[in-house]
Amino acid sequence: MIAAVSAGLLMYALTDGGLQIFLVHPGGPFFNKKDDGYWGIPKGLQENNEALLDTAKREFSEETGINPAGDFLPLGSVKQKSGKTVHAWAFKVESNKPVMIHSNTFKIEWPPKSGIKQKFPEVDKGEFFPPDIARIKIVEAQTEFISALERNLIGNKLI
């Protein structure tokens, strides 16, 4: 079996309060009451051999309703517990104001074995966090993306 490959974007802002990291919470009934360790960067599976950065931009737009723009800083890749490899890039926005999410949806049988198909958003909310809180919220393997961003920003004397 070939391991899944995903790509995503880490949106960030530099504010008077410092670095702010944008994360999304997965939608659907399985994640309804799960918080710490379940948030992540908007990401998704590569389709038809598209370039990974193109995958990341497409998935970010589909999951948030935001069209990412600007310079995209490569953050490398991580392997999650599921075996999925996630490649990521960061891009800067000017504000960490609350973001209204407009996510694509998926259908599943819910409640289980009910025969009823229900539609749920792929992402139910998105929020900016300072790095220390983001590290608590994010899927463990993806903490490396926060560290890679910080190393780059510190190296370029931006934080």
Principal-axis shape equals: globular
Termini separation (Å)? 42 Å
| Overall pLDDT | 93
Radius of gyration, in angstroms, nearest whole number: 16 Å
What is the CATH topology? Nucleoside Triphosphate Pyrophosphohydrolase
Determine the number of helices (DSSP H or I, runs of at least 4 residues).
3
Q: Could you describe the 3D structure shown?
A:
- With 159 residues, the protein is an alpha+beta fold.
- It has one domain: Nucleoside Triphosphate Pyrophosphohydrolase (Alpha-Beta Complex), CATH 3.90.79.10.
- 21% of the residues lie in helices and 35% in strands.
- A hairpin with a 5-residue loop joins strand 4 (73-79) and strand 5.
- It is globular, with a radius of gyration of 16 Å.
- The model has no long low-confidence stretch (mean pLDDT 93).
Helix and strand layout, with pairings?
Layout: E1 5-15, E2 18-26, E3 43-45, H1 52-64, E4 73-79, E5 85-93, E6 105-109, E7 117-121, E8 123-129, H2 131-137, H3 143-155
Entry summary:
The chain has 159 residues and is an alpha+beta fold. It has three helices and eight strands, in the order βββαβββββαα.
What are the main properties of this structure?
159 residues; alpha+beta; Nucleoside Triphosphate Pyrophosphohydrolase; six-stranded mixed sheet; two-stranded antiparallel ribbon; 3 helices; globular
